[in-house]
Amino acid sequence: MFTIRIVDLEVFYRVGVPDEERAEPQRLMVSVEMAVEAPQAAASDELSDTIDYYSVSQDLLNHGEGRSWKLIERLSAELAERILEKYRPSSVRVEVKKFIIPQARHVSVSCSRSLDN
């Protein structure tokens, strides 16, 4: 089993409970951890035998276009479900960090999904 991580990918999505907060995209950090069974990738050295993390990151960067969310709980669940469905890791964990409370480094929500569920 391999773990592929994308850590603190900077994205700009419209998210927040008040309409004013969703008026403009805001900076978020998204981290993704994907478990993948890819023994053939270790042997073949071929990208087609694993998950292309560049494709995942581009997908995440573009995911916010034309969309908005009130809660980062819903956003993290949607991203986890999308990655699981599209890229088929054994499991995925998505963390979304939001920088809304000035006295805190960030607020974050994590969501985990697996093919078993």
List keywords for this structure.
117 residues; alpha+beta; GTP Cyclohydrolase I, domain 2; five-stranded mixed β-sheet; 4 helices; 5 strands; 37% strand; elongated
Write the SSE topology:
Layout: E1 2-15, H1 19-22, E2 26-36, H2 39-44, H3 53-62, E3 68-69, H4 72-87, E4 91-98, E5 107-114
Parallel strand pairs: 1-3
Antiparallel strand pairs: 1-2, 2-4, 4-5
Structural description of this entry:
- The protein is of the alpha+beta class and 117 residues long.
- It has one domain (2-114): GTP Cyclohydrolase I, domain 2 (2-Layer Sandwich), CATH 3.30.1130.10.
- It is 31% helix and 37% strand.
- The chain has four helices and five strands, in the order βαβααβαββ.
- It has helices spanning 19-22, 39-44, 53-62, 72-87; strands at 2-15, 26-36, 68-69, 91-98, 107-114.
- A five-stranded mixed sheet has the order 3-1-2-4-5.
- A hairpin with an 8-residue loop joins strand 4 (91-98) and strand 5 (107-114).
- The longest helix is centred in the last third of the chain and has 16 residues, at 72-87.
- It starts with a strand and ends with a strand.
Provide a brief overview of the structure:
This protein is of the alpha+beta class and 117 residues long.
How many structural domains does the protein architecture include? Answer: 1
- Spatial gap, N to C terminus: 19 Å
| Class inferred from helices and paired strands | alpha+beta
Shape: elongated
Beta-sheet strand percentage? Answer: 35-45%
In round numbers, the mean pLDDT is 94
